[in-house]
Amino acid sequence: xxxxxxxxxxxxxxxxxxxxxxxxxxxxxxxxxxxxxxxxxxxxxxxxxxxxxxxxxxxxxxxxxxxxxxxxxxxxxxxxxxxxxxxxxxxxxxxxxxxxxxxxxxxxxxxxxxxxxxxxxxxxxxxxxxxxxxxxxxxxxxxxxxxxxxxxxxxxxxxxxxxxxxxxxxxxxxxxxxxxxxxxxxxxxxxxxxxxxxxxxxxxxxxxxxxxxxxxxxxxxxxxxxxxxxxxxxx
Length: 235
Description:
Blueprint: E1 6-15, E2 18-28, E3 33-37, H1 44-51, E4 59-64, E5 67-68, H2 73-77, E6 80-83, H3 95-105, H4 111-121, H5 137-149, E7 155-159, H6 167-182, E8 186-190, H7 194-200, E9 203-208, E10 211-217, H8 223-234
Parallel strand pairs: 3-8, 3-9, 6-7, 7-8
Antiparallel strand pairs: 1-2, 1-4, 4-5, 9-10
Helix pairs in contact: 3-4, 4-5
């Protein structure tokens, strides 16, 4: 078994007097896709924001590629691609300009060629010179996926990445996640779709009450057993 690319140990986070994460332990190995389930407010988005370097934990440790995210913040950010629940695009920039702006931030080499390739891959090549504000919700999500992949990160973090996607977009997303892990990358994604979580992942985790209430390999796992665990965790 390979060494985990993402290692989370005893991670805690509170907002004011409200604890959101109460001691999370989780590992994601290279070539693996991990699905994270949980009710609204369970802490899924907070966890991903910490891993992406957008929020600071109160306690615990996170290592990405063997680097501590607190001590090596700049280096670890370059290893991560993050697709948030909202696409967070610059509406006044064109589709291509959005990618080039992000590419400059991450010092991506040959960024225009890389951006063109990714726009082709996500089906937006013909929209390259349109403003981002003209995109549909699903097209904006496709652009957010291209942006997350632009700097060739080894860890992909995706917060409900299927939001707004049609059937073709969902099939594209599934293919991109599979390609990423076949190339040795690691994936952690959240979803409310249990069947999709089981279909797209190698490992599934259930976040409840700020803790990992359930973790299993998905091979051979029946949706009914996960639903039962989910209902028990909510009690």
